[in-house]
Amino acid sequence: MTKDHEFAITATGLRKSYGDRTVLDGIDFRVPGGTVFSLLGPNGAGKTTAVNILSTLISADDGQARIAGHDLTAEAQAVRAAIGVTGQFSAVDGLITGEENMLLMADLHHLSRTAGRRVITELLERFDLADAAKKPASTYSGGMKRRLDIAMTLVGDPRIIFLDEPTTGLDPRSRHTMWQIIRELVSGGVTVFLTTQYLDEADQLADRIAVLNGGRLVAEGSAEELKRLVPGGHVRLRFSDPVAYERAATALRETTRDDAALAVQIPSDGTQRELRAILDWLDSAGIEADELSVHTPDLDDVFFALTGNPVPTQSTGSANPAGAADKENAR
Ligand SMILES: Nc1ncnc2c1ncn2[C@@H]1O[C@H](COP(=O)(O)OP(=O)(O)OP(=O)(O)O)[C@@H](O)[C@H]1O
Fold first, then answer.
1. Does ligand 1 have an atom closer than 6 angstroms to the CB of 48?
2. Potential cystine with 85: which of 70, 162, 269, 310 (Cβ 3.0-4.6 Å)?
3. Where exactly does CATH 3.40.50.300 map onto the chain?
4. CA distance linking residue 331 with residue 327, whole number of Å
5. What is the pLDDT of residues 58-85, one digit of tens each?
6. Per-residue pLDDT tens for 175-190?
7. What NCBIfam families does its record include (predicted)?
């Protein structure tokens, strides 16, 4: 069991309304130190509102939160000193160079000239920005701007970082770079509170995922736990011989037929035991399938089941570059 003081972030009963629109309707969660917690929700679900509350930018109407052991309202200053925030709207000033942006952050954190220089050089190297350091940030690509934004956040060496949709609008390669950055931060002991609309991102990075919909957390758990909430796992057998297809479709129980594709789907959790049972049965019946594939439910299925919302797709590049890869494992 994780003790209360080991949680980097705890929130209880957070509420926020704008006029008669309730954005957060009492949400609770706890984030153990050194882990990634992902708040997942469709557009307008209230993710940014939650980040803004937890980072002291706006106040909640009700509820409590503790960040790094400090009370959010009574010790707002201490909370601010412990956290870093990278929002959807970048803090990067395009008119000055990447290095100058970093120097401003070093000044904000009252680092000495020598310490500031050392930290900045290190961070620019680490985020592959050293070559572009002397160019105006307005000339940077979207991915470079995001990397600079995170580098600026890290100047103060925060132990808890809020990343609000860090990869929205990035191409697949920049997304993967950002994921790598986040993994490295966490392996260095940093706690990451990540909001995203992308299920594969939460799947890739988060230790725990909370799904925000209609102002409430409608589910919380690891990606694996959430996937178990929805049915949808099956084994698909495809045939080229119509006779073999017909025999399989009539003899196997609970199958769904796909006459056009000569394929049957059998509900299955995809375990070795179930696969063996299916293969044994095919062998003993003398039926040979041309292809067998295992479909495990993914977070897309969970998201749809919980929110009734279609899964958001990336506006740039591939919609699901990593998560989809293991959805259909042809064998
Ligand atoms: N200052 C404000 N005044 C009035 N309504 C607001 C304000 N800020 C946010 N809202 C409303 O609260 C809701 C939640 O907004 P929020 O930005 O937190 O959502 P989000 O989950 O971050 O969405 P997105 O993925 O689009 O960024 C939206 O309906 C938004 O219009």
1. yes
2. 162
3. 7-228
4. 12
5. 999 999 999 999 999 999 999 999 999 9
6. 898 899 999 999 999 9
7. drrA
